[in-house]
Write a structure and sequence with these properties.
With 387 residues, this protein is α/β, with parallel strands linked by helices. The protein contains ten helices and twelve strands. Helix 7 links the parallel strand 4 and strand 5. The structure holds pyridoxal-5'-phosphate. Pyridoxal-5'-phosphate binds next to helix 4.
């Protein structure tokens, strides 16, 4: 007992070295403090293993239910999918399907169009699976250039295009590709679309009209043609504890591309990349979605958007310029030397990140960030520019 106490004391010391969301200094993360109900759920589902679902049929049932709940949020009443480790695993899983489909068509490499703003998880997928990416440049809105995409497809149709990756809530700027337009092209040429809505998946469906930019297309879900898979992460704006990523496919037929035989488990095939996997993410996502409901999420998203606008307002007072009007709760602040500025700010205890596609600092206005935090940060940034 004494030993246990000592160990816990030591662990506490390590934990105290970590930053805390509530201090408001984590400005560049897409994760946040999980919903308070999570603690009890984590304890209840601690020993569950969905890698062997026959042993945990209740937790498996929860996974089916939560995938259905997320599917409904994305206009699909019959989805197939999993709650997995995160957006990275989800994107890799989608690329596994595209690769398998290409293989069935007799192509060794899958030809995939991918936007310049794609998350680096796609680079991991490329390395693992010998994927052949063509990077589509960005247009003025920092979204995938649809004209380039169309022309490229028309010019290369002989070669065969196996997939298009689109983003609904880009990591750097929160932008959303014009997925309805891309869907039309994909339908015409029978191309698979994967939408990476790891971040936007729990924001866009709850975004009130008053926060939507004029002329911007926010539509990204399964109601569009040829959207065959969507990454949507509960552990980002879904408020679930890490790890809880999500991958949804249009229907059950996609499972066969992922299945491998599992002779010594309670089920004879497994589709997920990871074998042994906790049921905590599943149960927590289920619980949080039930507790919050659409109204709860709408309230959280609205709060984040209000704080996003507040940040923009405070930036204007100091003539700090934004790269674009915020589409979601992400703000990019133009900066001549973002690496240096972010390093200086880090030394002062502010943790924000930078963009890759443009010289800018990047702030994700997550639920743990308040107006007071924003005020303090703006003061710190102004001070940094004066020094
Ligand atoms: C758009 C997008 N996709 C995928 C990921 C990867 O998610 P994870 O870090 O949960 O693996 C991120 C992470 O920020 C992201 O922003």
């Amino acid at each position: 007992m004494k030993k246990e106490k000592e160990i816990l004391e030591k662990l506490k010391k390590y934990r105290e070295m970590d930053l805390k969301y509530e201090d408001g200094r984590i400005l560049g993360s897409m994760c946040t403090k999980p919903h308070p109900i999570s603690k009890k759920i984590v304890e209840m589902f601690l020993e569950t293993n969905l890698g062997d679902p026959g042993l945990f049929p209740g937790t498996k049932r929860l996974e089916e239910e939560v995938i259905k709940m997320i599917g409904e949020m994305l206009h699909n009443n019959n989805p197939f999918g999993y709650i997995i480790s995160g957006g990275t695993e989800a994107n890799i899983t989608a690329m596994r399907v595209v690769k398998k489909m290409a293989k069935e068509k007799g192509r060794r490499e899958a030809n995939i169009l991918i936007p310049e703003t794609a998350h680096f998880s796609f680079e991991k997928a490329r390395e693992m699976m010998d994927l052949n990416y063509t990077v589509v440049p960005l247009d003025r809105k920092y979204t995938m250039d649809v004209k380039y995409l169309k022309d490229y497809i028309e010019d290369n149709i002989e070669k065969g295009i196996d997939g298009i990756v689109t983003i609904a809530g880009s990591t750097e700027l929160g932008t959303i590709d014009n997925i309805p337009e891309i869907s039309k092209v994909a339908k015409e040429y029978n191309i698979y679309i994967h939408v990476d809505a790891a971040f936007g998946g729990f924001v866009i469906p709850f975004l009130e009209e008053r926060y939507k930019l004029e002329g911007y297309n926010y539509h990204f879900d399964f109601s569009l043609d040829n959207i065959f898979s969507i990454t949507v992460d509960p552990h980002k704006m879904g408020l679930a504890p890490i790890p809880a990523g999500g991958i949804l496919f249009r229907d059950f037929s996609f499972k066969r591309y992922l299945d491998v035989e599992t002779p010594y488990l309670t089920e004879d095939s497994q589709a997920t990349l990871i074998g042994t996997r906790s049921g905590i993410g599943v149960a927590a996502t289920w619980g949080i979605m039930k507790v919050l409901g659409p109204d709860g999420y709408r309230e959280i998203v609205s709060q984040c958007m209000e704080n996003t606008y507040y940040l923009v307002k405070r930036m204007k007072e100091y003539s700090f310029e934004r790269v674009i009007d915020p589409v979601l709760n992400i703000v990019a602040i133009k900066d001549e030397d973002p690496v240096n500025t972010s390093l200086i700010l880090r030394k002062k205890g502010w943790y924000l990140s930078i963009c890759r596609c443009v010289d800018a600092l990047r702030i994700v206005v997550m639920p743990h960030i308040t107006k007071e935090h924003i005020d303090r940060f703006i003061d710190a940034l102004a001070q940094c520019k004066r020094d």
